[in-house]
Amino acid sequence: MSEKSNIIKLKNLVEDWEGEYERSIKEKPERKDRFNNLSWTEIKPLYTLCDLEDVDYEEDIGLPGRYPYTRGVHTSMYRSRPWTVRQVMGFGGGQESSKRSDFLQKHGQTGFNVVFDHPTNLGLDSDDENADGFVGREGTAIDTIHDMRELLDDINMESESISLVSAHPAILAMVVAIALERGINIENLSGTLQNYPMIGHTMGGCTDASPHYSKRFCLDIVEYCSRNLPRWNSTSVASGQSRAAGCTAVQEIAFGIGSALAIIKGCMERGIGVDEIAPRVSFLLIADRDIFEEVAKFRAMRRLWARILKEEMGAKNPKSCQLRFHCHTAGHALTYQQPMINIVRSTIHGLSAVLGGCQSLHISSADEGFAIPTEESAKLSLRTQQIILDESGAADT
To answer: In whole angstroms, what is the distance from residue 124 CA to residue 397 CA?
Structure first.
């Protein structure tokens, strides 16, 4: 039977089923007046091949590791390249965070991921009057290179990927200086600096730099990394932060790609080619509770990025078209009431990130809705990742 005949037969089956469905919900009404995802897209009760009639499989979906990378950026995906287990941590000073990092590594963490406090991100010393009340809150306080040495004390900088959730160039400068102290060829350094221009952040009466200043610093870092740190992700576009602040999944895609393209175009104006920049651009995205919408978001964003880079930006290197992202499960969706239920929420969020093809993952802990995670809850989140990888079957195909 021809493909066209199959579609006609399927349409007749669907039409017959829809009549049966209408009769069914007259007898027992649907449990909602409207079914929609978090972006307010209405959800149909049934999807079939009829919904894919106008889809060109090769051009619109493709195979894993092949343009337009809808199904993932690596050919073998998690069968041979598991995502990096990268639980974020950061509190107090370098010693405290180093201790937590060592604890997580002993239980199977495969990537270093640290967030810094607000004074550090703004370039303030901890004893600055504007830093009062913010030191070591929501991140690690780093004032000097000595603090950074303590933070990285147990990290093998030659083999381990280092994720630094900061945009400040001094943080990267310290890492490079410590690598040189250890006799490491900085071309072998692997990691990520968030380096995402943020506008209008205030703290204690201190306002950060102007948008032009932030963008200039961002471009300076990208240019430096493209020349000196070929394995370093020079910018991680954190549109997931916009999602946590209330935007939709569709807007998260738009803000992320729009910001990344602005950075690439800014560097191209400096004479740096798109294929020198784009392969080291990464993204930080959120995985929220609507599992199908989140998986679709990650796939759609990869495809859109690939097409824009190839067709509009003129990228020649396939790696320029491969959107890579770290995923942080939705901490904003967690509640302080009945915190144990957050374990279930975060598991669903993490599963959507894996089904969507993330390159590294943080699963928010049960107590993350109201506190810095305890060792026990942080370990449970790490174990949740291991269960998704080794027991759920989600990573096997």
So the answer is: 48
How many CA atoms within 13 Å lie on the side-chain side of 161? 20
Question: Is the separation of the CB atoms in 359 and 325 below 8 Å?
Answer: yes
Assign 3-class secondary structure to 318-356: HHHHCCEEEEEECHHHCCCCCCCHHHHHHHHHHHHHHHC
Give residue-wise pLDDT tens across range 114-141: 999 999 988 899 999 999 999 988 899 9
Which contacts (CB < 8 Å, 24+ apart) does range 21-30 have? 21/45, 21/46
Distance CA 171, CA 197 (A): 15
N- to C-terminal Cα separation, the chain: 29
Per residue in 32-80, pLDDT (tens digit) is 999 999 999 999 999 999 999 889 999 999 999 999 999 999 999 999 9
Angle at 243 between CA 61 and CA 114, to 5 degrees: 100
Nearest C-alpha neighbor of 175 from the set 119, 226, 221, 227: 221
The tokens for 15 are 């039409």
What's the rounded Cα separation, in Å, for the pair 158 and 146? Answer: 20
Strands 360-362 and 84-85: parallel
Asked whether the predicted pLDDT for residue 204 surpasses 80, the reply is no
The residue with tokens 């000097």 is 144
Q: Report the SS3 class of residue 385.
A: helix
**Secondary structure of 160-206 in the HEC alphabet?**
CCEEEECCCHHHHHHHHHHHHHCCCCHHHCCEEECCCCCCCCEECCE
Q: How confident is the model at residue 211 (pLDDT cuts 50, 70, 90)?
A: very low
Dihedral in degrees, nearest 10, Cα atoms 78, 83, 85, 90: -170
The whole-number average pLDDT for the span 7-11 is 93
CA dist 384 and 347 (Å) reads 7
From residue 311, how far is each of 106, 302, 308, 323 by CA, in Å? Answer: 45, 14, 5, 15
Residue closest to 126 by CA, chosen among 214, 203, 207: 203
pLDDT tens digits, 322-343: 999 999 999 999 999 999 999 9
Which amino acid is it at 127? D
